[in-house]
Design brief:
homotrimer, alpha+beta, 5-stranded antiparallel beta sheet, 3-stranded antiparallel beta sheet, 138 residues
Amino acid sequence: MKQFRKELWFETHSRRQIINITGQVAQCLQESGIIHGLLLCNAMHITASVFINDDESGLHQDFEVWLEGLAPEKPYSRYKHNGYEDNADAHLKRTIMGREVVVAVTDGKLDLGPWEQIFYGEFDGKRKKRVLVKIIGE
Amino acid sequence: MKQFRKELWFETHSRRQIINITGQVAQCLQESGIIHGLLLCNAMHITASVFINDDESGLHQDFEVWLEGLAPEKPYSRYKHNGYEDNADAHLKRTIMGREVVVAVTDGKLDLGPWEQIFYGEFDGKRKKRVLVKIIGE
Amino acid sequence: MKQFRKELWFETHSRRQIINITGQVAQCLQESGIIHGLLLCNAMHITASVFINDDESGLHQDFEVWLEGLAPEKPYSRYKHNGYEDNADAHLKRTIMGREVVVAVTDGKLDLGPWEQIFYGEFDGKRKKRVLVKIIGE
């Protein structure tokens, strides 16, 4: 069994941002030399997400509006978590979007459907945060 | 390490439908000959879901009503994604329900709890779409 | 390839409760002797969740209020599932929180970010229920 581990770092300029990381994850897979297996990609922070969806800017704006509706950022006082922090909404938004994806590795490639792209979803940005890529297989 | 890969195809007659695929996934596991490992089952389309819950028709109706409340299909104009498309709600509904499940394989069987069943959740159907089953183990 | 399987049992005193199980999961990993691999931790019941977030009591109260807003427990008659049962809301709440987490195993340890903790989320408690830990690797 082979295994591979790498951290990807991100620092967004705004509080919330969606970044397509499919190319970076595919690069990890290539470095690993693994041909068949499973790839885990997860946010290492609890106010961020790794998810799979469509790379379409209208949809990404829809996500922003929709998540603000389900878990509004303000007023900060609406959340008990916001004593010393102001990011309770980010914990909830990331819960909706998910912490991680597991992707099949087949013939040395990410075994994704035609429109599947991997995204980093940042909900409390403007600081350095990490994504973990772990691959096991042969 | 052994590995197995198979695609399952579905074409629903309605826009939204929930289909129990536990038997088909168990059949994949049997074909694989894998005794201990991990099984990934994921929608290959970004407007569909694979999830685990109860095979109870009342609950499935509850899911329909609940998801329509959280991410209504109409009016289509409420979503920016719906320029050439009308399926933004399906992207959001699938986000709630999840893209994938990972199931333990133990003694050659799906290691599920007593009521756990695997479902394909279609939110933009009436066309052929795929689910991926990938298994690694021994 | 090595593999390890263990069930963790929980019985909460209230209908809903969040329990930090990171220590018990780490103990499983130690028992397994696995150094590099993937660890699956999933609820074996469809009204409970395993998820990763922050171990902060204010946030856990926010989850309670937020989930009650998205999928209220009462009136029980609002859900079709609630014929003989009263736990439809628990199926929906667990859907939001997620069934499972997959965690990387690196150098014999749970490869978690600094604030990542693993939780059992119970949404229909007061009875014995199980979590599955399955680890594969070397």
